[in-house]
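pasting for ref
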Amino acid sequence: MFSLLIAASLVFGPEDAEFAERTTREFIEECTPRDAGTIRGGIAANWILDRASMTGADVRRDVFRASTPKGMRRFVNLYGEFESNPTSRWVVIVSHFDTKPGTNCPGANDGGSTTGLLISLANVISEWREQQGNVMLVWTDGEECMGERYSPGDGFQGAERAVQYLKEKDRKVQAVVCLDMLGDADLAISVPANGDPTLAKIAQHAARRIGEPNLVTPMADSVKDDHVAFSEAGHRAIVLIDFSYGPGNAWWHTAEDTCDKLSKESFLKSGRLVCEMLRILM
């Protein structure tokens, strides 16, 4: 009975999904473009800080400089921490918020949807009274590369800085779950091959537990995303991503990545999935 009470205490419901969708729409309207390492990127980070702090989360801003193909740039990460036990390990949930430079892409789904989802999750987790472990939400800058393809020093600056932050704070990490492109109205979540296999199984198990057995499927291919930086640092990490955004993924990194392609139902499924994974991991 006690375990059932704990499970019932972390619930992502329709109101939370509506909040996530509304927050995403406002974010896109007020913070586009937000290319990494730009003034607009910094404005977007401040916007997230304000909104996430309103949920009751302890959110910190981390300003840092990193090299890019266009020289040194200023980036901003945000960390929302929910600590229940100093000796417990941390589950880290990550979303990038920047847009792809040079594409005129609003990033409603790519970066925007999971930014709104994390803010809504912050609200849910802040009310999780029976929390047994520690949770950190991370909004990363600089996930997107400035060139056509990722290369050393081009992309993942925020994730690499977050890895450094965890090390500096001596955070013992149990798992890292990156979220990307999860607001697509035609939601189909994949776990790329270059992720931790145990976490991939947990994601599929969580989908079954919320009554969505076909929501999460393994992907045969690898995907370059923020989880790579965490994996390379020795952390167990995966990315949950819908990489079938439009016909042939045609809306990805284009001006077609707009809010009319999102749905509250997809936010609900994604939020419930993440919460179920937290329950399993903690």
